[in-house]
Amino acid sequence: MMHTTTIQKKIAVFASGAGSNTEKIIIYFASHPSISISLIVSNKANAGVLKIAATYSINTLLIEKEKFFTQNAYTDELKNLGIDFIVLAGFLWRIPKKLIEAYSNKIINIHPALLPKYGGKGMYGHYVHEAVIDAKEKESGITIHYVDEQYDHGNIITQIKCSVAENDTPDSLAEKIHQLEHQFFPSTIEKCLMEQKDSLTL
Hints:
Blueprint: E1 9-14, H1 20-29, E2 35-42, H2 48-55, E3 59-62, H3 65-70, H4 75-80, E4 85-88, H5 97-102, E5 107-111, H6 126-134, E6 139-146, E7 156-163, H7 170-201
Parallel strand pairs: 1-2, 1-4, 2-3, 4-5
Antiparallel strand pairs: 5-6, 6-7
Helix pairs in contact: 1-7, 6-7
């Protein structure tokens, strides 16, 4: 059997905050033979994730609202950079139709709860954990899913659960969720990309 040269798949990570998930993803793929983190995209000029990008010498793209929502949604820029796949890691804007169409089934998101519960507009970070605890839920977790035009709505790829203890606070629950995110998000991204690559070569 002949082996052809491995085609590098280029990922753009979209993030709005400190970037702890993004850093774990960067580290995970640092020496990957066929997947690279090629671009960090943010909608906030002071986002911590941009410093992480600089630390690892990864190109960045700072996006602005009007162009994202009413013009080309930066699809031309992403295509020109050869981006194959988009990962949302704490990105707070809803993804516009133009970008979803340009990257059909190639955008995934991570949400810090077990969807369809505790999803939707305004449900991110601390707000999610507060709602889970206020509802006296016995378990929470993470949901990794494909992205469509609605917040936290696309087809679910995987869910990983954790228990919610009676004495958990939003902060302690957040820590449990972060551990799950850091452990499972990078490998799930890899699995999605490898499955897509396999389906193309069949």
